[in-house]
Structure formats: structure tokens, C-alpha cells
Write a structure and sequence with these properties.
Largest sheet: 5 strands, mixed
Distance between the termini: 43 Å
CATH superfamily of the largest domain: Metal-dependent hydrolases
Radius of gyration: 19 Å
Helix content: 40-55%
Length: about 270
Amino acid sequence: MSTLRIDLHVHSEGSYDGHEPVELILEHAADIGLDGVVITDHDVLHESTRAAKLAAEYGLIGIPGVEVSTAHGHLLAIGVDEMPPRRVGYEETVGWIRDHGGVAVVPHPFQRTRHGVRKKNIPDVDAIETFNAWLFTGYKNQRARRYAEAYGYPTVAASDAHTLPYVGRAYTEITVPGVDREGVAREDVLAAIRDGSTAVQGRRAPVPMAARHYAIGAARKSGYYAKVGTLQTATYAKFGTIKTGSLLKTGYERAMMGVKNLLRYAER
């Protein structure tokens, strides 16, 4: 039996509102102890597919996914290799995902400001995201949990990260019976979600843990952009040094801003 920690809802620079390259996300996920991370960009699949292929290089389980816009709100398609149809009904999209071997997970339900689906439009699905770390209050998460319990749906948690330090702030513990960690395949993970062999992990992180996530993410992000800048220098000698300094400065400044905000919040 294997118990895996997987963040099922993360955005990369492939999303219109994402910022991070998948290589950086994968490296960070491995560094903080996750077993997998699913890139679920908005209505595009290319970076998620690429991340799933690269995952093994970081010791992670590769699972592609996408956050698709339906006629009734957002829906996570986990474990699909093709892009689901957009702007069609929720129930039709769920059927498409299942027909293509994936699991259909309802993200941040009931939160209309973030395109969460209304209760009346939720058909039979595979799981409900009952803890979304991006939500600033616990009310919508509590409502999602009550709904899942009332209707017997499996529950999952995810960070919904759009920037590196938020990756892993919430995740799902997924128990796969009869298989050791090295032998777990994506089909095993999908089957475990369908069976409800999941546990939600995502309560407000203690300040030291959150600070560690920020610090690791900040250092790794600065290092990544420094490396990118150095590589660009080799090709674009005229502009490389300026680009390197700019990218490094930007990564550092953003990282420090995140740490300062976290510490300011902790002092309240």
C-alpha cells in the first residue's frame, strides 16, 4: 500500500493568470515532499502534458490535467490527454472526461466570483474539491465539504496555486492499495480518487511551515531565473547581463515581498 501526497490543482505559465514554468513547479514540488502535482491550466493542455512527461525526472508521478470552462462553471479534468470541449454543459463535460479515462473534479464549488458551479448544476461527478487553499475564508470550503458528505462524493484538497510559494499549501493524500511507491502509475491514482481513498490536507499552515514554503520557493525561483538569464547570455551576449540582473532582481523582490506579507500577517 502506498499513500501519496498530490497537489491536484496548480497553474503554470500556460494559464493566462499563471506565472511559473513547469520545470520550476516540478522541482519545487519534489523539494517540499509531494509525490505529484497536476498542472491544470485554464482551457489549455500543452504545459500540463509536458509536465506529466517530465515528472519522472523529478521523482514525481506524472498526471496531466486541465481546468476547463463549461457552460456552468469550471471543472477539473484529471488524467486526460486531450482537451475537453469548452462551453458545453457540466454533465456533458463530465461524461467526456470519463469517456477519455479521466476523473471529473469540481473545483471551488459555489464561489461564483471564481466561476464555481452552482449546486443545481452539479451532476454525478467523481470528486469535490472541499479545500481550496486560494480561498481567504473557510466558508466556501465548509459548504463544499458539507455538500460532498451529504451526497457521498470523494473529497480532495488542492492549492490552486498560481505562484510558486503556494504549491503544496493544500494537497490530497491518496491511498493506493497493493502497490509500492515505485510501482504506482497514474491509472492507480485515478482509480483511488474514484474509490474515495482520499484524505484532505490543507488546514491553515503553521507560520514556520508557511515561511519555509516561501523561503524554499523564493530561493529556487531566484536561482531558476538566474540560470535562465545565464543561458540567454550565452546566446544574446549583448543583452544577457542586463536580462540576468533583471530576472534575478525580479525573482528576489517578489520572494521578499511574499515573506514580508507572511510575517506581517503572522504578527496580527
